[in-house]
Amino acid sequence: MYQTESTAWICSVxxxxxxxxxxxxxxxxxHGTGQTVKMNKWIETMNEQENHELTHSGLIQTQxxxxxxxxxxxxENGWAKIIALWQPSSKDxxxxxxxxxxxxxxxxxxxxELGYARVIVRKAQLWSEDFKPQLVVPxxxxxxxxxxxxxxxxxxxxxxxxxxxxxxxxVSSVEEIPAGSGNAVAKLAEEFLDxxxxxxxxxxxxxxxxxxxxxxxxxxxxIIPRDAHDQAAAGMSVDTQDQAAWHEGDLLFFxxxxxxxxxxxxxxxxxxGLMIHSPTPGKxxxxxxxxxxxxxxxxxxxxxxxxxxS
Length: 310
Hints:
It contains eight helices and 22 strands. With 310 residues, it is of the alpha+beta class. It has three domains: 7-109, SH3 Domains (SH3 type barrels), CATH 2.30.30.40; 116-172, SH3 Domains (SH3 type barrels); 182-304, Alpha-Beta Complex (endopeptidase fold (from Nostoc punctiforme)), CATH 3.90.1720.10.
């Protein structure tokens, strides 16, 4: 509605939170909704009750990373109603819907002839041509490539910037990230151990459970739905009763009422009866043994998105 064929709206801050509605934002959320987003400050500022409210009140839908494209459907009072095009969802066949402050988006000329640079480290520094530090961007950020060298020149919402070649993977498109193994998915998740849970989180400042599974699989060439209940309906079904048939990197899903109710959680199978997951507000990404836990009783589905185990 708002862009032309030669332009696209993209996220213009390192991490933009997609809200259920403009009315969802609280006073404590100012660091997450400003023109300069301060994720660490925002997370630190919230007390335990305010953190839990994000989860239980459904204030947040998802998040966008720097340069991620959106479809802008409508603009009202400084807010954009958007569709996150890279995040499949049953809520809208085009992608994940929600609201973002308009000042966290920018309309740019489309550029993808040389593919994208995907950030493969937890955080990466962007530099100006005269080697002055610019923004720090999170893992899995994808930016169009303009020139390849020891420093990759990328197109950003703020113009050209440079990023160290060893901190990125060059890919032709978001749909053509090289396929990894299930083992690679599990081991990649391990790099985020102790990262705090964040409801709706899609960045290396904090993942929620399905944000972790989405991003670990995306980094290994599998674009899956954004939410746990949609993820559980995709991929290849694996027998929940036969743990020997599970592969590292398979996704494990859990539902209320001992597996018969609504799906509320997802983790990544780590092998040997272990799971790596982002548990709940106030906790951090961890590896746990399934046996003897509530998760063992609530397991309702195992899904495989990557065929190769190692």
